[in-house]
Write a structure and sequence with these properties.
Elements (H helix, E strand, L loop, with lengths): L2 H52 L13 E4 L11 E8 L2 E14 L2 E10 L4 E8 L55 H27 L7
Antiparallel strand pairs: 1-2, 2-3, 3-4, 4-5
Length: 219
């Protein structure tokens, strides 16, 4: 094969590769544009499902996902990145805050939480949103995996305030605190309990500033 023929072959091969790359990229872009609305709708639905687990729907009547401020990083909450705090209102009056928190010291590492705090300083609800705890042991912190379906461990925080349990007692009983744990998996429970107490303290301390800020504002 001559050098000229070899060069033509190489150019033709390169051109074919470019065409295939352009076609593939176009198809991927088209697929993304077509599926993006469905993906976003699914994400919003999942977010609302989680919010309604920690804050009963009858406690707010605003467009909650559109009423938020951005915070972060916030070491008190274990957050090293920006995060949204959603503001619940009922008849235009502040009702509750829904915020993210992270327990960095779970048995399997980070435990991510969603915590709702009522205006009067009570925990409305807590849910684990992500964790790597040992299946069958520490994963009872997630009510979907708690074997005690009728009395999930994490519900013990509901409606509790610092008036009932002082900040220094937001630990499990084994550590001199006020909250239950399951034998054999204390570390997971301890981490969630402390992180929930810190989230409650943060919400109370920053409550006025969070509600007074403009929607979408970064604090």
């Amino acid at each position: 094969m001559s050098r000229y023929t070899a060069a033509r072959t190489s150019l033709r091969t390169a051109a074919i590769m470019v065409v295939f790359t352009l076609i593939f990229t176009s198809l991927m872009s088209l697929t993304y544009r077509m599926t993006r609305p469905a993906i976003e709708a699914s994400e919003l639905a999942e977010r609302m499902r989680l919010i309604n687990e920690v804050l009963p729907p009858e406690r707010y009547d605003n467009a909650l996902l559109e009423d938020y401020v951005t915070i972060g990083p916030a070491p008190e909450l274990g957050l090293s990145r920006d995060s949204r705090v959603y503001r619940a209102r009922l008849e235009d009056a502040p009702s509750a805050l829904i915020l993210e928190a992270v327990a960095p010291d779970g048995y399997g590492g980070r435990i991510e939480l969603a915590v709702a705090v009522s205006l009067d300083g009570r925990i409305s609800g807590v849910r684990v949103t992500a964790h790597s705890e040992t299946p069958g042991l520490g994963d009872y912190i997630d009510p979907r995996k708690d074997r005690e379906r009728d009395n999930p461990w994490i519900l013990q925080f509901d409606e509790v305030s610092f008036a009932q349990v002082p900040a220094e007692r937001w630990r499990v009983r084994r550590d001199g605190g006020a909250f239950d744990y399951r034998i054999g998996a204390t570390i997971s429970a301890s981490a969630v309990t402390r992180a929930t107490g810190r989230a409650l303290e943060y919400a109370i301390r920053h409550r006025d500033a969070l509600f007074d800020a403009e929607t979408g504002e970064r604090l």
